[in-house]
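REVIEWER CHECKLIST
Item 1: Sequence provided? yes
Item 2: Single chain? yes
Item 3: Sequence as submitted:
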Amino acid sequence: MKRIASLTAIASLCAAAAFAHAQSTGYVGPSTKAAPAAAATAPTGYAGPSNVPLMTAKDLLAKGKDDQQVRLQGKLLSHKGGDKYEFADASGRMTVEIDDEHFPQGAKVDQNTTVELVGEFDKELVGESTLDVDQLKVVTR
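Item 4: Structure as written out by the authors:
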């Protein structure tokens, strides 16, 4: 009986520690939902120069082509729920989709953090066009 109680206590402590760690990273700014997104481990890979064009949100929405690879620099103003965030730069605003694993591990991202997003534009004929983010890099805090 003591063994089961001990194992249950250890499992509870491990779960609480994992939850606390998950809550300490990722997007921590305003949200239209109750809880902010939690970050997972950051992907590794190439981190050098890119030939993917840097665009503005306004130009991307006006001139972007479906499945086009682009980079945007700006801020995530709010979490809209799920993997959707409101992104803004000096030209305007748009919705971006960011999976939790694309947030850098150990870095807090809020509405004051400048980020660079690299991803594929999802142009919709009807409804809202979005950027499906493949990489998120913190530019300045």
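Item 5: Key structural point noted by reviewer: Confidence is low (pLDDT under 50) at residues 16-24, 34-43.
Item 6: Recommendation: ____
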